[in-house]
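[PROTEIN RECORD]
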Amino acid sequence: GNYILVGASHSSGRDLSSGQLGESYIADFSSRGPTSDGRTKPDILAPGSSILSAGGKPATVGECDPVTYPKPGKADEGVVSKEGTSMAAPVVSGTAALIRQYFVDGFYPTGKKNESNSFDPSGMLVKAVILNGGQYMRGVDNGNGRVLPVSPYDNNQNFGRISLIDSLYLYGKSNVQTRVFDRETIAQKGKKTMSFTVDKSNGCDTSELTATLTWFDQAGFPGCQKCLIDDLDLYITKGNTTYYPNGLNKRDTLHSTERVRISSSDGETVSVTVEATNIVVWTRQYALV
């Protein structure tokens, strides 16, 4: 689907309740996939457990944050602690707003604000940035030290935990450097290949290279058993090896977002290819990060 479906992880620091294992663990109540046609869900995870919200008291003034945080479902002074994917989804919405502001304010590509670099990003690009930087989780925290193992791109975590510091380049602050391509157009059976040389000279702490392709598909038919209509494909070639998306060893025929993540070293050259396997309307726009 063209939306972003959000699952819940634990938070960190003071926001952790007693016994919780931390931000690299999925909350036990988090929603899981797949969809009826087999697509992996959720798309991304965000903190959704023990999240502080405003807990104003009617006809009362002067509420202050308490010295100790209330337990989930409890209120104290001017705040209330809640949990659920309803708490995680606003985290992703706020992150999406910050990503849009990053491009509108001209932070791309230098990592410094420059209004002359401003542009209005598409929803495809915002989604691609969010999923491109997702961090893998260690497991589902079922409490009392019980952890359910998870794998990348499974129906527990899929693309992982949202992380802006691993998604966009901010000079002197972020873990990554970023290249984006927005509103690119490809025709039926078309193929676009770009070569990149890994350059960490301006600051890049990661040992991985990640590429994410996103496009907004047409609406599927009610009751469809394979709902993807326009099918694009992403793969990376390094040396004599081709790497396919979403943890597969072949092209993905189900999803309208595809991510390839491989190990990389400074100075290595890779080729990133987008291919239009099937487009009903002959051309399709896409975003690539």
